[in-house]
Structure formats: C-alpha cells, structure tokens
C-alpha cells in the first residue's frame, strides 16, 4: 500500500552536490579518506532509494520492512566492498541472520542500537525518511524522555548545527539544526544548547580547528595560523558536556553540512579529549 506521491516541488535531488563535496573533501583531507570513500559508495544506493520513495512512498507502518528488502542488502554489499573489514563482516552477518531488519525497526522506534546496527539502520533508512519529507514523522517514534531539542518532523535528535550566510559581514545568519534521523532542518536559537537547553553564555563554548590544533574561545582565527576547517567548529556546553559540529556557511559557501561533518574527525577527537560527548554519532559512528 502506498502513502501517495511526495509533492514534486520538494523533489530537488541533493545527491550530485553531496557527491561533489565528498570527492573534494576526500582529496583535501587524507585523514578522512576512508569514511568518505565508504560514503561515496553508499551514495548511489541511497540516491536510488530516495528516488524510489519519491515516486511511490511505502506505507508508514511498513517502512522498516520495505527498506530492509529494498535498500539494506545493497548497503551491506557496499559496506563490505569498501568499508572497514570488521564492519563489512558484521554487516553481512547481521543480514544473513535476519537481525538487521530489527535494527531498522528499532531506529524508527528510537531504540538504543549498537554501532553496527545503528550504521545499517541510518544508511538504509536515512534516504527513505529524507525522501518522505514532512511525512517521515508518521513512521517514527520520539524516542527517549531527555530534555534536549528534538526534530519537529520525526522526533529525532539533531546531528549538526548550521549557521546560514546572512550576506552581510556584520550580521549573523540564523542557526538551524539538522536531524540525524530524517534529515529535516529547523531553526534554533544561537544562544541555547540543543542538548539541555542551557542559555548561559559562560557555559556555551566554541572550539575552532587550526593547523596547530584546536583552540577554545569564540571560534575566531588566531594570528596568521590558517584553519584546516574554516567552516567548522565545535559548539559545546559545559553544563551537559555535549556538543555538535557546527557548519558556518559564511566561511565556505561550498560546504554541504551533512558531508562536511563527516570529515571533522580532528574536531571529534578534540571534543572527546575535552570530555565532551556528541549529541548523536554521525553515519560513520564519529
């Protein structure tokens, strides 16, 4: 049973742009070559799933079953071909045992999943939920009872923070959050922690990556040191010790937030060294 076609006006494909950005970042950042190589192999699988859902959306109650049959096997094969050997072996084992389908249902239900199951669920369901747009929420449960900000569309946790380019040097652009589950984007205050709601200026910290290593403060460049990631920084909260990678589009208009965040490994490592925990690990588990 189909849920009906998704409106054509919302069907602009994001996949070519993501592919170009991933290729550019893989060439630029050697340390991110492995996760970006896997991401590039997943993109054709995800694009095909996205297109299929745009044409004929599955019924919300059967979404996990549909993705397990139509998307998951190709995700597993792509992972086994290019991903880390341990992940590829584990993915094939999950598929052979029939356990991977349960992971997809768990992701929609907001369940806590181990890293392998979470990866398979996100890689398989991410493009499906994104293709559904506003209708994605009909297949998803809110999840935990934490006090953090949740996606207004599906109830998922935010994956990253994005600052829009205002087009004016002295005017800050608005902030938005990107959902880790359905890819929905929504506006959110620049002066509030998405994980716990803290609004005290002294508790909200920013760490910016530079060639010499990360520095804390307001995120501005220091001296003549050129940043490795001019468009990326850590937006952290000392109250809850959580953080998100934040993408500043004014610093790099070519940035694609969900792709750039995958390349931010040094920032994630620095955040971990500071005792911070990411609100949501990304698709590759960082």
Features:
alpha+beta; FdhE-like fold; 2 domains; eight-stranded mixed β-sheet
Instruction: Work out the count of structural domains.
Output: 2
Distance between the termini: 37 Å
Please provide the ordered H/E string of secondary-structure elements.
Answer: HHHHHHHEEEEEEEHHE
Q: What percent strand?
A: 5-15%
Summarize model confidence as the mean pLDDT. 90
Show unreliable segments.
5-10, 218-222
User: What level of helicity do the residues show?
Assistant: 25-40%
Helix count equals: 9
What does it look like?
This protein folds into two domains: 8-139, no CATH class; 158-278, FdhE-like domain (FdhE-like fold, Alpha-Beta Complex), CATH 3.90.1670. 38% of the residues lie in helices and 13% in strands. The chain is built from nine helices and eight strands. A hairpin with a 4-residue loop joins strand 6 and strand 7 (242-248). Helix 2 runs antiparallel to helix 4. The longest helix has 23 residues, at 33-55. The protein is globular. It starts with 14 loop residues before the first helix and ends in an 8-residue tail after the last strand.
Short overview:
The chain is α+β, with helices and mostly antiparallel strands and about 290 residues long.
List the helices and strands and how they pair.
Blueprint: H1 15-28, H2 33-55, H3 63-70, H4 72-82, H5 85-97, H6 100-109, H7 115-132, E1 158-163, E2 175-179, E3 185-187, E4 204-208, E5 215-217, E6 232-237, E7 242-248, H8 257-260, H9 265-273, E8 277-278
Parallel strand pairs: 1-7, 7-8
Antiparallel strand pairs: 1-2, 2-3, 4-5, 4-6, 6-7
